[in-house]
Amino acid sequence: MKNPNKKLKLRLSVYFIIIVSAELFSILGASIAFSYLFPLIADDIVLPEWVLILAFSVVVGVACSIFVNKVVLSKISNLSRSMSRVAQGEFDIELKTDSKIDEIQEIYKSFNLMTRELSATEMLKSDFVSNVSHEFKTPIGAIEGYAMLLQEKNLTDEEREGYLEKILSNTGRLSDLVGNILLISKLENQSIGEKREKYRLDEQIRKTLVMLEPKWSEKELELDAELENVEYFGNEGLMFHVFNNLIGNAIKFDPRGGDLILRLQERDGYVIFTVEDSGPGINEEHMSRIFDKFYQGDSSHKGEGNGLGLSLVKRIVDLEGGTVEAENRACGGCKFKVIIKKS
Ligand code: ADP
Asked: Which residue's CA is minimally distant from atom 11 of ligand 1?
């Protein structure tokens, strides 16, 4: 975009020069005119010649100022008043102008863009707070409920154990939630650079699979993994979250006895990782939002996550300079694909 401020400054200087020159010309013109006219009308005029010249030049000066004020200054003071309202936290402002001056139009356009962005950020912030509060409320409510049930006398050992298990699983949920929120906020203010090291991506994926083994064997999933040996230079700790979340989701959404297909390849200096499942796939209306914070498209699995997994994945892959995308498979289920340049 061109720099409207610079051009406006230039234009204002031109207006200033026009006013000053108009003043000088009007004084000059008035003196010449009066030196010819004065002798003819002198009889009727009682005021001295210099007063009339001054009066004439004041009229010309005021006319010029009104013109400049109408054309430029009123638009600028309007902008300045709106700026003060923005400074006080009022972002719901849209300025309109009928000005023919390009630079004023540019500045108004930038101002409107700024207020739009600010209101969107403000909305995100308040959404974030209400989402966090909501996500905390559910497990805390559950813990409270089961703790109260535990206070009952005459509980069987089985009931007691069942309630304790619920309390533990909800504290686990809370701790995952806190961990994810902390990680996301840390990643939003950090670059990945500091902790890069060389390591084998295929080994990391295998370790993740071993860690998740109780979940996929409990569901009797058909595992099909072809992982090429890939040496990678990156942040191992963060990349773990990428694989853990993507594979974890595939397992979570897969039906009993479903497929879990993993591929890791290196092609033309890029690392390509895909994970496929034979679950329900992702609705078209949810597809564009699955990487948003706290977004959970599928209500049947709401209790098993917090909607932060994919936004973490996206943030980490972004920081690694790569891309992550999802698509539905023609045969059912979905496929997530991560592509990262091998540095
Ligand atoms: P969650 O904790 O809910 O899994 P994520 O951020 O990991 O949060 O995922 C966001 C949403 O994306 C999920 O709620 C679900 O609707 C959708 N999703 C993610 N992975 C899959 C998958 N493999 N199959 C179907 N839907 C998925």
From this structure: 296
CB neighbour list of residue 256: distance below 8 Å, 6 or more residues apart: 219, 220
In DSSP terms, which residues pair with 327 in a beta bridge? 335
Nearest atom (ligand 1) to Cα of 304: 2
Cα 76 to ligand 1 centre (Å): 49
Report the interhelical angle of 102-151 vs 157-188 (nearest 10°).
160
Atom from ligand 1 closest to the CA of residue 305? 2
Question: What's the mean pLDDT in 262-283?
Answer: 96
Q: How many CB atoms lie within 10 A of CB 277?
A: 26
Q: What is the mean pLDDT of residues 225-252?
A: 95
**Residues whose CB is less than 8 angstroms from the CB of residue 259 and which lie 6 or more positions away in sequence, other chains included:** 221, 222, 224, 276, 277, 278, 333
Lowest mean pLDDT among 110-114, 219-223, 230-234, 271-275: 110-114
Tokens 């003043």 appear where?
23
Which of 95, 22, 5 has its CA nearest to residue 60?
A: 22
pLDDT tens digits for 204-223?
999 999 999 999 999 999 99
* Ligand 1, CB within 6 Å, residue ranges: 245, 249-250, 253, 277, 279-280, 282, 286, 290, 295-298, 305-311, 334
pLDDT of residue 1: 45
Distance CA 33, CA 309 (A): 83
